[in-house]
């Protein structure tokens, strides 16, 4: 079993939730899991406890609340009562308090809110209270599209321990800049900034066969694979300390771990970010 590396978290969004994935992750040095109340058909927590109750003590577990099973469809909500109920069930199903609970894509609920700042503040206060009461060790915000967040954050709100956003070469500049602005508004340190979905959801997407992300690395011997280069570059777009990535193949995870110490070509990353910014269409006012 490798020493744990805090820079990578095993994301379970598309995982089959099988025991060999947990043992394989531990073997290669991944000791952190990221799941959600709604993953695996709303059974992720219970399934993890069933297949790996003896393994979970070796992991830190982050999860998310904000999606709920309604009468006819999945519902999005950051209403405090529903968040507290989900946290209570999460503790029961996991058999332990999670180490970190994210407010899951709050932007969906905030778009339709009359007072989005108040709604965000109440949701943050609910998770902060849950952490204070031992229902989780810490709380954060996970946002697929954080563009609405910077304008809503103020110093009266509780501050999350972590902000998790999309990262990687396929993320648009609007999302990259909003992620940085939201983290800055909360005063989050570099260690508190996480990324997710570094391959845009699919490391086998044809785009990775047409582009060579190794231009974002300094020369290395042996030469890294395209996947390794894309993964390493994701730590600079936006700048994050940790990335949640999904895979059912421990060998793939091991190769991604090997990529963590590859040196970034910071000049190339900055030039790419500037290129995205220059290509951004002007906003209509």
Description:
- The protein has helices at residues 19-28, 39-42, 44-52, 80-94, 107-111, 116-132, 173-186, 207-210, 226-234, 250-259, 266-279; strands at 8-11, 32-34, 60-65, 67-69, 74-76, 100-104, 139-143, 162-166, 193-196, 242-245.
- By secondary structure, it is of the alpha/beta class.
- It has one domain (8-279): TIM Barrel (Alpha-Beta Barrel).
- Strand 4 (67-69) and strand 5 (74-76) form a beta hairpin.
- The model has no long low-confidence stretch (mean pLDDT 93).
TL;DR of this structure?
With 285 residues, this protein is an alpha/beta fold.
Oligomer classification: single chain
Secondary-structure element order, N to C: EHEHHEEEHEHHEEHEHHEHH
State the major sheet: 8 strands, parallel, barrel
How far is the first residue's CA from the last residue's CA? 56 Å
- Number of DSSP E strands: 10
CATH architecture: Alpha-Beta Barrel
Residues in helix, %? 25-40%
Over all CA atoms, what is the radius of gyration? 19 Å
- pLDDT under 50 segments (min length 5)? none
Mean pLDDT: 93
Structural class, from secondary structure content? Answer: alpha/beta
What count of helical segments does DSSP give? 11
CATH superfamily: NADP-dependent oxidoreductase domain
- Tell me the fraction of residues in β-strands, as a range: 5-15%
Give me the side-by-side strand order of the main sheet: 1-2-3-6-7-8-9-10
């Amino acid at each position: 079993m490798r020493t744990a590396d805090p820079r990578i978290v095993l994301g379970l969004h598309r995982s089959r939730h099988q025991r060999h994935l947990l043992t394989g992750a531990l073997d290669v040095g991944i000791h952190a899991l990221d799941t959600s109340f709604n993953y695996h058909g709303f059974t992720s927590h219970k399934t993890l406890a069933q297949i790996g109750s003896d393994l979970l003590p070796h992991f830190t577990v982050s999860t998310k609340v904000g999606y709920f099973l309604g009468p006819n469809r999945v519902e999005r909500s950051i209403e405090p009562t529903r968040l507290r109920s989900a946290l209570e069930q999460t503790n029961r199903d996991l058999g332990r308090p999670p180490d970190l609970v994210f407010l899951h894509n709050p932007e969906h609920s905030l778009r339709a809110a009359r007072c989005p700042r108040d709604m965000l503040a109440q949701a943050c206060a609910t998770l902060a209270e849950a952490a204070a009461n031992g229902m989780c060790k810490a709380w954060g915000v996970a946002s697929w599209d954080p563009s609405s967040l910077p304008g809503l954050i103020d110093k009266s709100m509780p501050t999350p321990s972590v902000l998790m956003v999309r990262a990687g070469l396929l993320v648009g500049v609007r999302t990259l800049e909003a992620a940085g602005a939201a983290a800055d508004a909360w005063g989050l340190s570099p260690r508190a900034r996480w990324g997710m979905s570094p391959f845009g959801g699919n490391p086998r997407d044809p785009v990775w066969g047409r582009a060579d992300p190794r231009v974002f690395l300094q020369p290395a011997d042996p030469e890294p694979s395209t996947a390794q280069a894309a993964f390493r570059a994701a730590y600079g777009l936006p700048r994050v300390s940790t990335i949640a990535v999904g895979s059912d193949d421990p060998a793939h995870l091991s190769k991604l771990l090997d990529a963590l110490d590859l040196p970034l070509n910071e000049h190339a990353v900055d030039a790419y970010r500037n290129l995205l910014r220059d290509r951004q269409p002007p906003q209509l006012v």
